[in-house]
Design a protein that fits this description.
This protein is mainly α and 147 residues long. Helices cover 88% and strands 0% of the residues. The longest helix is centred in the first third of the chain and has 36 residues.
Protein backbone atom coordinates (compact mmCIF):
# COMPACT_ATOMS: atom_id res chain seq x y z
CA UNK A 1 0.00 0.00 0.00
CA UNK A 2 2.80 2.46 0.81
CA UNK A 3 4.17 2.01 -2.72
CA UNK A 4 0.87 3.26 -4.13
CA UNK A 5 0.82 6.24 -1.75
CA UNK A 6 4.44 7.03 -2.63
CA UNK A 7 3.64 6.78 -6.37
CA UNK A 8 0.66 9.12 -5.98
CA UNK A 9 2.75 11.60 -4.00
CA UNK A 10 5.48 11.55 -6.64
CA UNK A 11 2.89 11.99 -9.41
CA UNK A 12 1.38 15.01 -7.63
CA UNK A 13 4.79 16.57 -7.12
CA UNK A 14 5.78 16.08 -10.77
CA UNK A 15 2.46 17.47 -12.00
CA UNK A 16 2.60 20.49 -9.65
CA UNK A 17 6.10 21.45 -10.88
CA UNK A 18 5.01 20.95 -14.46
CA UNK A 19 1.87 23.09 -14.02
CA UNK A 20 3.99 25.86 -12.48
CA UNK A 21 6.23 25.68 -15.55
CA UNK A 22 3.14 25.83 -17.77
CA UNK A 23 2.02 29.00 -15.97
CA UNK A 24 5.45 30.54 -16.53
CA UNK A 25 5.22 29.60 -20.21
CA UNK A 26 1.81 31.27 -20.55
CA UNK A 27 3.08 34.45 -18.89
CA UNK A 28 6.07 34.60 -21.23
CA UNK A 29 3.81 33.94 -24.22
CA UNK A 30 1.56 36.83 -23.20
CA UNK A 31 4.59 39.10 -22.88
CA UNK A 32 5.77 38.19 -26.38
CA UNK A 33 2.36 38.74 -27.92
CA UNK A 34 1.94 41.95 -25.90
CA UNK A 35 5.12 43.33 -27.45
CA UNK A 36 3.67 42.58 -30.87
CA UNK A 37 0.45 44.44 -30.07
CA UNK A 38 2.62 47.43 -29.15
CA UNK A 39 4.27 47.03 -32.57
CA UNK A 40 7.59 46.23 -30.93
CA UNK A 41 9.79 43.29 -31.70
CA UNK A 42 10.71 41.24 -28.66
CA UNK A 43 14.39 41.03 -27.88
CA UNK A 44 16.46 37.95 -28.66
CA UNK A 45 16.83 37.31 -24.91
CA UNK A 46 13.03 37.30 -24.47
CA UNK A 47 12.58 34.86 -27.32
CA UNK A 48 15.39 32.65 -25.99
CA UNK A 49 13.85 32.60 -22.50
CA UNK A 50 10.45 31.72 -23.97
CA UNK A 51 11.93 28.94 -26.13
CA UNK A 52 13.84 27.51 -23.14
CA UNK A 53 10.70 27.35 -20.99
CA UNK A 54 8.67 26.04 -23.93
CA UNK A 55 11.05 23.13 -24.53
CA UNK A 56 11.42 22.39 -20.80
CA UNK A 57 7.64 22.31 -20.41
CA UNK A 58 7.08 20.01 -23.38
CA UNK A 59 9.96 17.74 -22.34
CA UNK A 60 8.70 17.46 -18.78
CA UNK A 61 5.28 16.57 -20.12
CA UNK A 62 6.60 13.79 -22.33
CA UNK A 63 9.26 12.37 -20.05
CA UNK A 64 7.80 12.85 -16.57
CA UNK A 65 4.12 13.73 -16.46
CA UNK A 66 2.83 11.43 -19.17
CA UNK A 67 4.86 8.60 -17.66
CA UNK A 68 3.00 9.13 -14.39
CA UNK A 69 -0.32 9.32 -16.20
CA UNK A 70 0.41 6.12 -18.14
CA UNK A 71 1.34 4.18 -15.02
CA UNK A 72 -1.77 5.40 -13.24
CA UNK A 73 -3.99 4.79 -16.29
CA UNK A 74 -2.80 1.18 -16.26
CA UNK A 75 -4.11 0.97 -12.70
CA UNK A 76 -7.37 2.79 -13.49
CA UNK A 77 -8.46 0.44 -16.22
CA UNK A 78 -9.45 0.57 -19.86
CA UNK A 79 -11.32 3.91 -19.86
CA UNK A 80 -8.32 5.88 -18.64
CA UNK A 81 -5.97 4.03 -20.95
CA UNK A 82 -8.28 4.69 -23.94
CA UNK A 83 -8.32 8.43 -23.14
CA UNK A 84 -4.55 8.43 -23.08
CA UNK A 85 -4.36 6.53 -26.36
CA UNK A 86 -6.80 8.99 -27.96
CA UNK A 87 -5.06 12.14 -26.71
CA UNK A 88 -1.38 11.27 -26.89
CA UNK A 89 -1.11 11.40 -30.73
CA UNK A 90 -2.87 14.77 -30.73
CA UNK A 91 -0.56 16.08 -28.02
CA UNK A 92 2.42 14.81 -30.02
CA UNK A 93 1.27 16.88 -33.02
CA UNK A 94 1.56 20.02 -30.90
CA UNK A 95 5.05 18.93 -29.89
CA UNK A 96 6.12 19.02 -33.53
CA UNK A 97 4.93 22.62 -33.82
CA UNK A 98 6.75 23.55 -30.59
CA UNK A 99 10.01 22.03 -31.81
CA UNK A 100 9.69 23.78 -35.18
CA UNK A 101 9.09 27.12 -33.44
CA UNK A 102 12.07 26.59 -31.15
CA UNK A 103 14.34 25.58 -34.03
CA UNK A 104 13.31 28.61 -36.05
CA UNK A 105 13.60 31.26 -33.33
CA UNK A 106 16.45 29.97 -31.19
CA UNK A 107 18.89 30.07 -34.12
CA UNK A 108 20.48 33.52 -33.93
CA UNK A 109 21.57 33.33 -37.57
CA UNK A 110 18.04 33.21 -38.92
CA UNK A 111 16.13 35.17 -36.30
CA UNK A 112 16.25 38.44 -38.25
CA UNK A 113 14.77 36.70 -41.28
CA UNK A 114 12.18 34.91 -39.13
CA UNK A 115 10.89 38.00 -37.34
CA UNK A 116 8.68 38.87 -40.31
CA UNK A 117 6.80 35.62 -39.64
CA UNK A 118 6.72 35.97 -35.85
CA UNK A 119 3.07 37.06 -35.59
CA UNK A 120 1.84 34.14 -37.68
CA UNK A 121 4.09 31.67 -35.86
CA UNK A 122 3.09 32.96 -32.41
CA UNK A 123 -0.57 32.69 -33.38
CA UNK A 124 -0.18 29.09 -34.57
CA UNK A 125 1.86 28.25 -31.49
CA UNK A 126 -0.75 29.85 -29.21
CA UNK A 127 -3.48 27.71 -30.76
CA UNK A 128 -1.36 24.58 -30.34
CA UNK A 129 -0.57 25.42 -26.71
CA UNK A 130 -4.26 26.06 -25.97
CA UNK A 131 -5.22 22.74 -27.54
CA UNK A 132 -2.44 20.95 -25.70
CA UNK A 133 -3.41 22.48 -22.35
CA UNK A 134 -7.01 21.34 -22.86
CA UNK A 135 -5.93 17.76 -23.64
CA UNK A 136 -3.43 17.66 -20.79
CA UNK A 137 -6.07 18.91 -18.38
CA UNK A 138 -8.33 16.02 -19.43
CA UNK A 139 -5.54 13.59 -18.61
CA UNK A 140 -4.85 15.24 -15.26
CA UNK A 141 -8.57 15.31 -14.43
CA UNK A 142 -8.83 11.59 -15.16
CA UNK A 143 -5.82 10.95 -12.99
CA UNK A 144 -7.23 13.03 -10.13
CA UNK A 145 -10.74 11.55 -10.42
CA UNK A 146 -9.49 8.00 -10.07
CA UNK A 147 -7.07 8.63 -7.20
Amino acid sequence: MSGSVEQNSRARSVIERWLAERNELLVLYCRLTGKRKDMMLPGKDQIDQFCDVLIDYVSAGHFEVYEQVVSNCDLNGPQSLKLLQDLFPKISETTDLVVDFNDKYSDSKTIEESMAELDRDLSALGEAIASRVEMEDKLIETLATHH
